[in-house]
Every structure is written in C-alpha cells, then in structure tokens.
Design a protein that fits this description.
With 106 residues, the chain is mostly helical. The chain contains 6 helices and 3 strands. A 3-stranded parallel β-sheet has the order 1-2-3. Helix 5 crosses helix 6.
Length: 106
C-alpha cells in the first residue's frame, strides 16, 4: 500500500499565501489540497493575527481549505524531548516546537 504524501505548512507559509506571495503560491500550486495540512497551533497563530471581523472571516475561509492536525499525546512527548535537547542551545519557541513535532509525528 502506497503512503499518501502530506505537506504540513508552517504559519509563515500561510501568512505568505494571505499576502499573495507569487513564489509561495507557485510552490504550493504543485500540490493537491488534500495533500496540505496545518497544525492546530498554526490555526491559533493565524487567528491571533486577525484585526477585524472581515479579516477573521477571510482567515476562517482560507484555513478551512486545509486538514487541521490536532496535538496528540505522542506529539506532546516529541515536543518535550525536543525542548529538553534544544532549550539551551537554540531557545526555540514552544509553538514552533509543537509544529515541528506535529511534522515529525506525521
């Protein structure tokens, strides 16, 4: 059985898509929508940036295009291990580690 491809988009990629960045749009155009996913952390970060109801509605419509990946217990464990490994050397942001952990899990 062939494994299906899943591309997990980072928050920065979604922001660039909102800005209609042609380079990002071109790269994403090579994939089917059912191959694209985002972390629930990305959803929260993007919603946090909404400045009014009109923008919030646009954001909700755009985010609904992607499969949203929840945080499972295994993802939390990966995140904690990454934080233990890199907290002193790289000072990573928690939300970035959760997105990275989601990608590693899937």
């Amino acid at each position: 059985m062939e494994e299906s491809l899943m591309i997990i988009l980072d928050t920065d990629v979604i922001i660039e898509l909102f800005k209609n960045n042609p380079k990002i749009k071109e790269k994403i155009a090579g994939f089917n929508l059912d191959e694209l996913a985002i972390s629930v952390i990305t959803v929260a970060e993007i919603l946090h940036g909404a400045i009014n109801k009109t923008e919030l509605a646009k954001i909700n419509k755009h985010l609904s295009l992607y499969k949203i990946l929840d945080i499972k217990e295994e993802i939390s464990a990966i995140c904690i291990n990454l934080m233990k490994k890199y907290c002193l050397s790289h000072r990573p942001y928690v939300q970035d580690l959760f997105i990275a952990s989601t990608s590693l899990y899937h």
